[in-house]
Amino acid sequence: WSSDVCSSDLAGAARAAFAAAGVDASETVEFSRPVDHGETPLEARFTVTHLPPDATPGTRMFVCQQHTPEAVWLPEYLHHANGSIGLEGLTLVAEDPSSYATVYLQAFGSDIVKETEDAVHIDLGRGRVDVVTAAAMASRYGDLAAPARTGLVGLSLQVSDRDATRRWLVDQAVPVSSSWRGGVVVDAEHACGVVLEFL
Fold first, then answer.
1. Which of 32, 82, 130, 139 is deepest in the core (most CB within 10 A)?
2. Tens digits of per-residue pLDDT, 52-77?
3. Which of 126, 124, 141 shows the shortest CA–CA distance to 191?
4. How far apart are the C-alpha atoms of 197 and 195, rounded to whole Å?
């Protein structure tokens, strides 16, 4: 399982919206943690509500309201040597992706869930979830993908410069290939069992 977070300005309102849609999200929980930031003490504060596993099959999701983004999105933590700048999406394999469509439609609405012949696409605004068949996964990534299985099989990251990302990975002796979308791919064998794609 993967655990994925959806951001929200109002976690309580998100929970109410889920309830109205018949999704039994958890009660909101507020918590905080100290942030080590040199001589300036900071406290990160959050409010979260968790969706039940059956509302988002293939992954576990929760909604997080950040009350103190200035204590979380610190400049020194926003840059990675591989050039990643954000999450582009997750890819899940399911025997019947269309069965996921109904469930995700209930939680997120018809305007962000699109169904094609061999995939279901859920657009979450700051990222997406694609649910595909094993055959579709094999067609997209071939031998780069892990042996056929269900669940999380791919992670895609946005980068600022694909060529720079490729050079950095090669310098680290990480095998890379080109993806069906023109991205830079690290095969599942070298990425903890998932296809890692930089776009």
1. 130
2. 989 988 888 899 999 999 998 888 88
3. 141
4. 6
